[in-house]
Amino acid sequence: MQTGSAADAEFFERLAELNDRFAASLPQTLGRVSAARNAFDTVRPQPELMEELHAVLHTLAGSSATFGFRILGHQARNIEQRLRVLMTFDAVAPEEWAAWLAELDMFVAWALRDPKDAYPNDESAI
């Protein structure tokens, strides 16, 4: 039978392994976001790309804080929520999609550089 401290140590060791795996998977995950973004047509947005971007951002938003990436999760949630709003409209001007994509580009560039660093122009971090 394990003592409390041995069980705690095992739990935190396992959590550290999961954190490392999450961190190692980020470049691939962000690559999926970039690929979908690069294929995105602002004039005729493809529903399958919107759904893929939403799903990946939703997953990042939900799991990031668990693995020590609180800011990443917060920013993914913000971008996901903006996408969800845009997806509710029957028609969205290409300029609105372009503005959202610019936010997405900034998010991906930041996350690839250092997803635990302060987010650019984030007043909530002050």
TrEMBL record:
Transmembrane segments: none annotated. Keywords: Two-component regulatory system. The keyword Ribosomal protein does not apply. Residues 20-104 form the HPt domain. The keyword rRNA-binding does not apply. SUPFAM superfamilies: Histidine-containing phosphotransfer domain, HPT domain. InterPro entries: HPT_dom_sf, Sig_transdc_His_kin_Hpt_dom. Pfam families: Hpt. This is Hpt domain-containing protein. The lineage of its organism: Bacteria, Pseudomonadati, Pseudomonadota, Betaproteobacteria, Burkholderiales.
